[in-house]
Amino acid sequence: MIGPVILIAIIIVGLAILLYYVPIVLWFSAIVSGVHISLIQLVLMRIRKVPPSIIVQAMIEAHKAGLEKIRRDELEAHFLAGGHVRNVVHALVSANKANINLTFQMATAIDLAGRDVFQAVQMSVNPKVIDTPPVTAVAKDGIQLIAKARVTVRANIRQLVGGAGEETVLARVGEGIVSSIGSSDSHKTVLENPDSISKVVLDKGLDAGTAFEILSIDIADIDIGKNIGAGLQMDQAIADKNIAQAKAEERRAMAVALEQEMKAKAQEARAKVIEAEAEVPKAMAEAFRNGNLGIMDYARYQNLQADTSMRESIAHPNGTPRQENNKKN
């Protein structure tokens, strides 16, 4: 026979299993709260691996908040799809209290898209302030400015699915700040009227296609950076100087090459003259032998040569042109 202790243990285990698959307490809590759900549906939830407590608590919260259009099978379907039922119901209740048009289908779509729908509703009610990183831009006078902005945004419920995130908003705001500063004639104008940057950026409609609506853009700080224009002019001057030096060196090299070429030609000409002079005695000897040159002719030639040498010595005290060139070389 089975002992009393074992029998009590079997009864307790059986009762626990029965209460697990037949959550009578949860069913009674739903009935008391005004939510009509059958006990069989709670048992079937256990079989479908859907926690009845999550579904029932969500239905009770929606009923107390006056959201009567939320059905049990829709909540079950959203849970089985991997959604967060409690977040969706919390978001619907908050949106209803804040008079925000948020349907159950939209809330579940936002939740399944990976966004926190309850946080999005909170951001719609309480806007969020985003601080941009330092944005560097250069005005037309070449002065660099470093600006920081604070962007106040609120969630755009209709754009949460498929809309761009905070990174896109910050990138667009930074681009607008750079464009606004770059179009200013002087950095002093920007420093005197920093609100002009905000006006220009807001007029661009930077929140188009994003999950946020930009409410305001405030310039928190502007610092003066480097004189980029002067630096660029100095770099250009150095580059021009290097180019001029290179061209001058090229002309000098060409002049040296031309001088060397002329010297080579002069030496070649002198060599030919020396060679021709060496042929003169031979020609004179041949003329003597052939009888074409007499003693008187030779004497006149010697006188002419002596006269030429005297004139060259008078014209060139330091020596003949040939000797001067030889000394120079």
How would you summarize the topology of this molecule?
Blueprint: H1 4-21, H2 24-32, H3 39-47, H4 52-64, H5 72-80, H6 85-97, H7 104-112, H8 117-125, E1 128-131, E2 135-138, E3 143-155, H9 166-182, H10 187-192, H11 195-202, E4 212-227, H12 228-290, H13 295-315, H14 321-328
Antiparallel strand pairs: 1-3, 2-3, 3-4
Explain the overall architecture.
With 329 residues, the protein is α+β, with helices and mostly antiparallel strands. It is 64% helix and 11% strand. The chain has helices at residues 4-21, 24-32, 39-47, 52-64, 72-80, 85-97, 104-112, 117-125, 166-182, 187-192, 195-202, 228-290, 295-315, 321-328, and strands at 128-131, 135-138, 143-155, 212-227. Strands 1, 2, 3 and 4 form a four-stranded antiparallel β-sheet that branches. A hairpin with a 4-residue loop joins strand 2 and strand 3. Helix 4 (52-64) runs parallel beside helix 6 (85-97). The longest helix has 63 residues, at 228-290. 20% of the residues are buried. The model has no long low-confidence stretch (mean pLDDT 81).
* Oligomer classification: single chain
State mean pLDDT (0 to 100 scale): 81
Largest sheet: 4 strands, antiparallel
Instruction: Evaluate the radius of gyration.
Output: 52 Å
Ranges where pLDDT stays below 50 over 5 or more residues in a row are none
- Gap between N and C termini: 139 Å
Order of helices and strands: HHHHHHHHEEEHHHEHHH
**Residues in helices, as a percent range:** 55-70%
Strands, total number: 4
Number of helices: 14
